[in-house]
Amino acid sequence: MDKPLAGIRILDLSRILAGPWCSQHLADMGAEVIKVEHPARGDDTRGWGPPYHGNTEDAAYYLSANRGKESVAIDIAHPEGQQLVRALVQQCDVVLENFKVGGLAKYGLDYASLKAIKPDLIYCSITGFGQDGPYAQRAGYDFLLQGMGGLMSLTGQPESVPGSEPVKVGVAITDLFTGMYAATSILSALIQRDRTGLGAWIDLSLLDVQVGVLANQAQNYLTTGKPPVRLGNAHPNIVPYQAFATADGHIILAVGNDRQFQRFCQVAGCPELAEDTRYRTNAGRVQHRETLVPELSALMASQPSDFWLSSLEEAGVPCGPINNLAQVFDDRQVQHRGMRIKRPHRAGGEVDLVSNPVRFNGMSMNADSAPPGLGEHTSVVLERLLPEQKEHFQHLSKEGVIR
């Protein structure tokens, strides 16, 4: 059975993470993704190591975001390279790019220039701060945007803890969210094009995305006028919903409603807490967290993690361990769901990759090929899509325009 995006062709001019994360998802869904890279440097993340895969030059960072693509090495700063990209655009449904605002206009590869040769083109631009506004010309990186966009003001131990400071999330979450917003926006534009025949220019800003995914915390501020503060592992709107130290480690207790709190108190041997008027409801527990949490902390520290995990699981109280990544990939549920996959590597053997989490009709959605080598598919793609220029490609290769 064909995958959902079979027949859709993406010309991917993006690099680093947000754009490639988007196009990897589209490739997993069946789209043909042509990754255009500089003939000498390629995607920056190719060199973001160690670690590297085996004895190759494939950095793990690059491998994480480029499965299922064809790498075509073209120097877009060269006039003949620009002509080649324009010819490819006419064979594609979507162009994805993350150059600085105006960066592609000097090459004639901006939206206005390409729309003139393909009116129904879907063109997705990812930048740090958007196509307009006082910060439009600034470069944007995930870490900067986690800070500027408010996430780091919510992440880390409270101000009252000695030595505490704002902390970024351990993965580039702003880039990843932006990549997924880009993917859903491209899919929406494809549906619109099928209905109206019109293309679209999608303008995505890392800052906009970071503010947009502040979710309940942003709404907490808009509702009260008071900026939320760092709470460590605690939740601003639910108690108890945080990590607790046990007799031999830490676990997460995630009590989502009053019934679960009652069951927790039964397991912990303190049923009177569930009847205390201060703690009977979640609103009361939030209001009185400063007295409740120390009591719960003392109780949790009295037993080892295995006791709490098994007893609370049996009682239907949400809880779980705090796993490192070795434990994650050893977890029987993670293994059952096939979240570690292997793909043949061009250097021989196989490369381990993280699976796309989406399933369609019980089928995992993962592209069949490993992330490509730099320029691995240049000849194949160009000769397939532009056969009339085949004789010209040898000249371009000698001039260093393609690799």
From TrEMBL:
Pfam families with a match to the protein in the record: CoA_transf_3
One GO MF term: transferase activity
Keywords: Transferase
InterPro entries: CoA-transferase_III_domain, CoA-Trfase_fam_III, CoA-Trfase_III_dom3_sf, CoA-Trfase_III_dom_1_sf
The protein's name: CoA transferase
